[in-house]
Amino acid sequence: MLQRLIIKNYAIIDHLEVDFSGNLNVITGETGAGKSILLGALSMILGERADPGVLFDKTGKCVIEGIFKVKKSQVAAFFQQHELDLEDSLIIRREISAAGKSRAFVNDTPVNISQLSELSGYLVDLHQQFDTLELGNADFQREVIDALAKPAALQVYHNLFLQYQQVQKKYKQLQDDRDQANKELDYNKFLLDELLEADFSPNEVEELDNELQLLTHAEEIKNTLNRVFFQLKEDEQPILQQLKQLQSSIQHISSFHKDMPAVSERMLSAYLELQDIAGEVDSINDQVHYDAQRIEQVNERMTLGYRLFKKHGVQTTDELLAIKDALTAKVDGVLNLDEQLAALEKEQAQLHEALIKDAAAITAERQEQVAPFEKKVNTLLAQVGMPNARLKVDILQGELNPYGQDTIEFLFDANRSNQFAPVGKVASGGELSRLMLCIKSLVAQSVALPTLIFDEIDTGISGEAARQVGVILKDLAKAHQIICITHQPQIAGKADAHYFVYKDARAEKVTTSVRLLSMEERIDKIAQMLSGERPTAAALENAREMVR
Fold first, then answer.
1. Which of 340, 379, 468, 498 makes a 20 to 30 Å CA pair with 320?
2. Could you tell me the residue ranges of all domains in the chain?
């Protein structure tokens, strides 16, 4: 419940603090005194968009703070999801700077506006003057019946419906893919057959290029290798023989100088290395042959390779092979699409069958609530001064949707004419207000909302009807905190705490203030609501009776 509301620098409020009781709180005051400004400020901490134009002092910032007492179990999931600290007291603060920047905090931790709006859904139901338009909304009507019926299968059904939608989406996408793939299939098969026929191995074109270089320069390579080998081993004075002789000469004098053995060793190493090189040159020479037929084969193969490179816009054999793999997957995929579509079609049918079954169970649970709901609402309508009004609930089966298979519509007859029509089309503003109160009073018993706020729920009523609205609000306040802005003395008389909103002129500025009335002040204000600014003795006595 809302324990305290603190407002600083908002609209025509300079600084205001209000402590609310846990039961029926009534707010009264003259028209224009600022009653709805209180709710405007409250809506800021419930997630409404900020307007920098609401600042009372344009040089300072606006701060609105609400202190709530909550059951931890009620908001635990939200706090865990958003990694916020959960305490017994919940403090929500909203700040609006003169520049228009808005910040929100939950227990001093910054949160965004969407998080604030989500949290407020666990704390407060704010009913304002034009919220009666919701009565004609199909979603609102369904939510009312579901709040009472609490269909056991609804969450399972909802998850199943999301799965069904995903399968439908996947099936449609796969159909589109198949249609597109079928258009490209022949061309892709042609490209794939061409690559399969070419049958290139990894890095083949690059290796063929190296081989062609060798084959076309075979004669030059052999001449060079023959010359090198001849000069190393077979010349009149072979290099190896000369080097061996020089090494022997150095070895002969190695005992005469300490550095000579090392030089001799190095020359021997050079001799052995050149001898090994000569052998390798001879071996390579034996492997090199000019082969005109092979040159022709390699040229043809490379021509094919480079033609395919150009056709597919690649530079290497491996890139070409990657394209071949992709084409293989596409062609195979088209052939497998029909099987996948058949499997998805079967899955859709199974999910649809399960949804129909669950939807029927949900419909049955909703239908069980219709008669008791109609009876209770119609009883309450009579209580609030509409004895001839009737509410009727139609549940018709339609297409599957996220909440079942039902179209729920509230129909209304104000005059026992048995001519029911959609409630939003035939009910007047006052009738809608009272009907909404009756419905919310029933729903509140099934929904764990600790605080309900009504802004002029008494629009268009007076007298006994207003008193009965007060009775309903008083009854609701046994289990919920109620905050109600009203102009009706009959409702004000039912309050557990009565707050008076008034304008205060200080330092040439008009501000809105609020004070909690004492018993005698309550009687005086209710008497004024009954008979004017100077209440009669009869009005005062009537006010005392109302308070008692």
1. 340
2. 173-337
Produce one character per residue of 474-503: b if its CB has 16 or more CB atoms within 10 Å, e if not. bebbeebbbbbbbbbbbbbbbbebbbbbee
Contacts of 540 (CB under 8 A, 6+ apart): 523, 524, 527
Tokens 């497998």, located at residue: 336
Amino acid identity of residue 263, one-letter, is V
Mean of the pLDDT values across residues 228-246? 85
Question: Tens digits of per-residue pLDDT, 185-228?
Answer: 778 888 888 888 888 899 888 888 887 777 777 777 888 888 88
| Separation CA 254–CA 32 (nearest Å) | 122
CA distance linking residue 91 with residue 45, whole number of Å: 10
How far is Cα 12 from Cα 345, in angstroms, rounded to an integer? 63
Report the SS3 class of residue 128. Answer: coil
| C-alpha angle 435-440-443 in degrees, rounded to nearest 5 | 130
- CB neighbour class for 173 (10 Å; exposed up to 12, middle 13-18, buried from 19): exposed
Strands 451-455 and 481-485: parallel
Burial class (CB in 10 A: 0-12, 13-18, 19+), 62: buried
2-10 and 62-69 beta bridge pairing? antiparallel
For 135, 376, 491, the CA distances from 36, given in Å and listed in that order, are 22, 31, 17
For residue 130, the model assigns a pLDDT of 40
Closest CA to 274 of 250, 238, 248: 238
